[in-house]
Amino acid sequence: MSGRELSDTERPAPRADGWLATRWERLNGPARIGGVDLARGLAVLGMFAAHLLWITEPFDVLEPDTWIAVVSGRSSILFATLAGVSIGLVTGAGAPLTGDAMSTARGRLAVRAGLLWVLGILLIATGVPVFVILPAYALMFLLALPLTSLRARVLLPLAAGLALVLPFVQIVLDALPFWRTPIGGPVSLGLGWHYPFTTWIVFVVAGLGVARAGVTRLRVQVWLVITGTLLAALGYGLGAATGADPEAEAATYLGALWTVRPHSTGLLEVIGSGGFALAVLGLCLLACRTFLVWVVLPLRAVGAMPLTAYTLQLLVWAAVAAAVLDRVGDLIGFRALLPFWPLAIGTVVLCTAWALLIGRGPLETLLDSASRFAVPAGRFPR
Questions:
Q1: Distances (CA, A) of 274 to 80, 271, 365
Q2: CA 134 – CA 211 distance, rounded (Å)
C-alpha cells in the first residue's frame, strides 16, 4: 500500500510552476501511471464493500443479483498484485536498479514494511472486526526484496510455478495444530494469516514481473487482459464444473485444494482470482490511455493514497461503532447502519480534494519521509 507514490521520481517530469500546478502534476503528470492508481482505487473500494456490505451469495456472472460478490477475496488479491507492481516500479521498473541504488531502494522498502506491520497491529488493536491486511502486506514486501534484481523472463514463470505448488503446501500449513493453541490466534492476526504470505507471495511476484515487463507498454497491457481473462476463465470454469462443495472442502485434502472459494487459497482460487487481478490491471491501464483517465480521476486519487484511505476507513469505523454501538466488534450492528456509501463517497471526495489541494496522502508522506530518513541515499557505498 505504499504504492505508486513510491516511484514518483522514477521518471523525470516537466517542472510545474505554481502551487496548484504542482499538485495537479503529482496526480496527473508523466511520473505517475494512471491505470495503476485506478486499479488500486478500485481495490480499496472493493475492500470497503467486502467489509461493509452483506454478501450472501457467491459471484455468478449469469446472476446480476450476485455481482457485488466479485469484491470478495478478489479485491485483496488485486491489492497484493499491485504491491508487486509498486515494488517493481520503485526498484527500476523495466530494468532492475543495480549497486547502491538498489540497496537504497531495498532498505527503504524494508523500513516501510516494518512501519506497515506496526500500523497493522495498531489497527487490529482498535477491535474493528475485519482481517487487517497490512501485517501480511508487510511480510510480502520483505519476501519480495530478494527477487527485485530479477527480470520479467524469470519472475513471470516463477509466479506461475509458485501458483501451481504453494496451494498444496498451504493446506498443510493451515491444518497445523499450532493455530488451535492459545497463542495461535494472536500469531495468526500478527501474520495476517487470513491472507497467508506463504501463498499470496504468488500475486506479489506476478505484479513484480508485470512491472519488469513494462507496465506502461501497450503490448503488455493487452497481454494482461488476454492472459488474465484466460486464467480467470480456467480457474472459475473448473471451479464451477468440478470444484469442491463446502462439505468436501472441509473434509478432505483434495476438497481444500480444488476450490475457487474466496479466501480459501485453493489452487483454483489462486489461478482464477490471480488471473482476474491481472485482467483488471490491464483494463485499467488501457482505460487510462483514453479520455476515461479524466472520468476516473476521483478513483485515481483514492489509488494515489491507498494506505491513508484504508486506514481512515477503519478508524472512522472504530469511532462510529464506539459511539453508537455497544462494542466496536459488533459487525452485524455496524453493517445495519448502512455505512458503505457514506464511507465510500466520503473517502473519494476527501482523497480527491487532498490530492488536488495538498498533494501526497498523509500516511504515504509519513512512510516516505521515515524511510528516506532511515535509509538516506548513498548509505551503501560500493
A1: 10, 5, 30
A2: 22
Query: What does the chain come to in residues?
Result: 382
User: Are the beta carbons of 35 and 210 closer than 8 angstroms?
Assistant: no
Buried b (16+ CB within 10 A) or exposed e, 113-135: bbbbbebbeebbebebbbbbbbb
**Closest to 206 (Cα-Cα) out of 262, 265, 150:** 150
Q: Please return the burial class of 322, using the count of CB atoms within 10 Å of its CB with bins 0-12, 13-18 and 19+.
A: middle
Which band of pLDDT confidence, cut at 50, 70 and 90, is reported for residue 18? low
Give the pTM: 0.91
Three-state SS for the chain is CCCHHHHCCCCCCCCCCCHHHHHHHHHHCCCCCHHHHHHHHHHHHHHHHHHHCCCCCCCCCCCHHHHHHHHCCHHHHHHHHHHHHHHHHHCCCCCCCCHHHHHHHHHHHHHHHHHHHHHHHHHHHCCCCCCCCHHHHHHHHHHHHHHCCCCHHHHHHHHHHHHHHHHHHHHHHHCCHHHHCCCHHHHHHHHCCCCCHHHHHHHHHHHHHHHHHHCCCHHHHHHHHHHHHHHHHHHHHHHHHHCCCHHHHHHCHHHHHCCCCCCCCCHHHHHHHHHHHHHHHHHHHHHCCCCHHHHCHHHHHHHHCHHHHHHHHHHHHHHHHHHHCCCCCCHHHHHHCCCHHHHHHHHHHHHHHHHHHCCCCHHHHHHHHHHHHHCCCCCCCC
pLDDT in tens, 130-166: 999 999 999 999 999 999 999 999 999 999 999 999 9
Identify the band that residue 26 occupies on the pLDDT scale cut at 50, 70 and 90: confident
Distance separating alpha carbons of residues 133 and 117, to the nearest angstrom:
9
Cell triple for 363: 500516511
CA atoms of 155 and 285, how far apart (whole Å) = 21
Number of Cα atoms under 13 Å in the Cβ half of residue 253: 8
What's the pLDDT tens digit per position in 186-237?
999 999 999 999 999 999 999 999 999 999 999 999 999 999 999 999 999 9
